[in-house]
Amino acid sequence: MIRLFQFCLFFVIFLSVPTLSFSKNDTTSVALIAYWSLGDSYSYEITKYTQQWKGDELVKFDSSSYSAEFLVIDSTETSYQIKWKYTHELFRSQVVDQVLLQSLNVKPILEIIYSTDEYGEFVGIDNWEEVRDAVNEIFETLTPILVEGKESGPAIQQVLQQMKNTYQSKIGVEAFVVPELKLLHFPFGASLEVGRIYEYEDSLPNLFGEEPVDAKGQLYLDEIDVEDEYCLLIQEVQLEENSSKSMIMDFFRLSGLDSEEFEKVVGEAVLEINDYNKFGVFYYPGVVDFIHTTRESYFQYLDDVASRRDTVLIILK
After folding, report:
1. pTM of this structure
2. CA–CA separation, 25 vs 28, rounded Å?
3. Would you state the pLDDT for residue 1?
4. For 57-112, how does the pLDDT look when each residue is reduced to its tens digit (9 = 90+)?
């Protein structure tokens, strides 16, 4: 049962960062607004770590990284269009075993084209259908290999099919393929007062069911350097336990893997999911210097305990 729940946590980590609305005209606040020009380019290094425990025993430690270029390819009075171009191919290091993918003739995703509003807030991925097709090719190639000869092959195939289904919509591609893009643009559009803590409630999309996942959070400026026009922004989020459990059950129902016993265990267990995110931003001209996010997930049922820590580092090179 713990192994099943550890598998569930794989999907919980892809819940989107909530987008907040703040006043953009408060002159007593630090305004995080994009002042970009056509041709502006910045390079980033993205590194991801996953640690997983069963009780006190570390049972998994994975890491992956890639480099990407942020390039402004269009600029209007009301929007920007950005090319996020990968130096190292996406999915060759972060979805399945790198050696396995390199041995297959799988088309990598080399770039994402997306849009923001005039403040730099993320709007959406423009070439999402191209990304979806590339993801579909990966699943179609890998599914027979991962299922062949395994006693649990039918169950694995059901799970992989449900994973594939989540990438078939625009919102699925944006939430699951490149969640770091929403992180990169999360600060923009806000006008934050020094010394004030913004508390909020939000609903995160649930791609496996109709009911969203509720969350409570707070946001505040931790440091400001007026001379360098730089600030450190902190975001803390706590996902609501019951709606997080509901999302997990939604996934297993869609996969055909739910059972009364599993529903009972998830319902009676203790589930905690908390985020702590730091954003270092040059608020003029609106460039993210670094992002450090941590998601701590904890599950306990009777004497069984499983926990997981997912860390993402995005660093300006």
Report:
1. 0.84
2. 9
3. 52
4. 999 998 888 899 999 999 999 999 999 998 755 554 444 555 555 555 666 677 99
pLDDT digit string, tens, across residues 274-290 = 999 999 999 999 999 99
User: Among 25, 228, 224, 258, which Cα is nearest to 119's?
Assistant: 25
DSSP state letters, the chain: -HHHHHHHHHHHTTPPPPP----S--TTEEEE-----TT-EEEEEEEEEEEEEETTEEEEEEEEEEEEEEEEEEE-SSEEEEEEEEEEEETTTTTS-HHHHHTS--PPEEEEEEEEETT--EEEETTHHHHHHHHHHHHHHHHHHHHTT-TTHHHHHHHHHHHHHTTSSHHHHHHHT-HHHHHHHTTTTEEEETT--EEEEEEE--TTSSSPEEEEEEEEEEEEETTTTEEEEEEEEEE-HHHHHHHHHHHHHHTT---HHHHHHHHHSEEEEEEEEEEEEETTTTEEEEEEEEEEEEEEETTEEEEEEEEEEEEE-
